[in-house]
Specification:
It is built from six helices and two strands; from the N terminus they run αββααααα. It is mostly helical and about 150 residues long. It folds into three domains: about 35 residues, no CATH class; about 55 residues, no CATH class; about 40 residues, no CATH class. Strands 1-2 form a two-stranded antiparallel ribbon. The model has no long low-confidence stretch (mean pLDDT about 75). Keywords: Membrane, Transmembrane, Transmembrane helix. It is a multi-pass membrane protein. It is found in: Membrane. GO terms for molecular function: sodium:bicarbonate symporter activity; solute:inorganic anion antiporter activity.
């Protein structure tokens, strides 16, 4: 197990293994791991800013500040504008905030599973393979389908 050098700090102790530090949102550069304490504050600021911008642009529809076409456009695309502005701010500030890892291909997470999920109400061979609560919650679906 490889440990950090004494001048590197991770969680209050340099006796922490590198594997533990890299798992905990720490930046690993040149043998040192430096924790960024501003990540939580920046995440809260990004959330609050996007909510405030979106809410304000949604309310601008009822004001008289711009022509009606501009107000309608800002109101309709308020969420997209807010997300775009806060994403630009996140990249300009330079604080490493966690991002969503998007896979490169669209496929089921488990290779043995089909795309279509079968159910016991339709296919009786799956009756004993599902938990009991699945059948309890999906049993009212069959009378609903009889309407059609």
């Amino acid at each position: 197990m490889e440990f950090l050098p004494p001048e590197c700090a991770c969680l209050n102790s340099s006796d922490t293994p590198k594997s533990n530090c890299t798992r905990m949102d720490a930046n690993y550069t040149e043998g040192c791991i430096a924790m960024e304490s501003e990540v939580l504050l920046m995440s809260i600021f990004l959330f609050s800013g996007s909510f405030f911008i979106s809410f304000t642009l949604k309310q601008i529809k009822n004001t008289g500040y711009f022509p009606s076409r501009v107000r309608d456009f800002l109101s309709d695309f308020s969420v997209v504008i807010a997300i775009g502005l806060m994403t630009a701010m996140d990249s300009v500030v330079g604080i490493h905030t966690p991002k969503l890892d998007v896979p490169s291909s669209f496929k089921p997470t488990w290779e043995g599973r089909d795309w279509i999920v079968t159910h016991a109400l339709i296919f009786t061979e799956h009756l004993l393979s599902n938990p009991w609560w699945v059948d309890v919650f999906l049993a009212p679906v069959s009378p609903y389908l009889l309407q059609f």
